[in-house]
Amino acid sequence: MDIILLHVFIVLFISVYEIRCISHPKPSCGYPPSQWCSSLEIAIECGVRKQCMELNATRPDPMVPFVDVTLYYESLCQGSRTFLTEQLFPTWTLLKDIMEVNLVPFGNAMEIPEENSFICQHGEPECYVNKIEACILHEAGHSAFHVIYCMVSSADVLKSAKSCLEQCAPFVKWATIESCAAGDLGHRLMHENAMKTQALKPEHTYVPWITFNGEHTSEWEDRAMSTLFSLVCELYKGIKPPACTGAQKKLDWSFC
User: Fold this and answer.
1) Claim to verify: residue 220 and residue 102 sit in the same structural domain
2) How far apart (Å, rounded) are the C-alpha atoms in residues 128 and 131?
3) Is residue 117 located within the same domain as residue 172?
4) Which of 97, 114, 186, 251 could form a disulfide with 181 if both were Cys (CB 3.0 to 4.6 A apart)?
5) What does the alpha-carbon distance between residue 12 and residue 111 come to, in Å, rounded to a whole number?
6) CA distance 191 to 102
7) Tens of pLDDT along 30-56?
8) What does the pLDDT read at residue 48?
């Protein structure tokens, strides 16, 4: 029981720290909390070796596949932003040991190959922000989701992009993202997202469009919009982690 309580404390502490991003001073070890237990060396440097050992003892069976949740969305779609901020990010924060998230910013956009361009539902600004987010996903690795959550939580997704990157992924230069979005790499990333979106079976008819382990059903979509946490716990085939069996099902999150 003590181990489970410690696990819950660590998850909640890391969750709050990551969501606030820089509301607290950076740890002296120089790594964000999400990486403290990623290796023995980092755990020792950050002074959390004992806590990480306890946490690893409660982790699910590594042989059981993660629940793969893929979000096909548009960067300026309010419905997409609401789902990402109120369901997807909080659920992933609590269940990242059994859940993998993939983001595909494209949605109802159209690719015009003969013009080497894209048309987006919310105009050219959305096409640009889609590229920005695609480039962040490409460049920022494990920190990309935190950056995008920071962006979509703000009043202005594009204006917040630079500061969110500096806060949540300071190892990536804003100039790198701008260059990516304006160049061939950004175009290629958007083309890849277009191909992924167009390959959906059944074909997507709205956004956000959510798949679980590559599959989409109307029932899952409806449940995901309000109770994603419970659905992911249900879909996981292994022994349920403490987060699923504890009292952490009320998701009430806000960005600093």
Assistant:
1) yes
2) 5
3) yes
4) 186
5) 42
6) 16
7) 777 767 777 777 778 888 877 776 665
8) 81
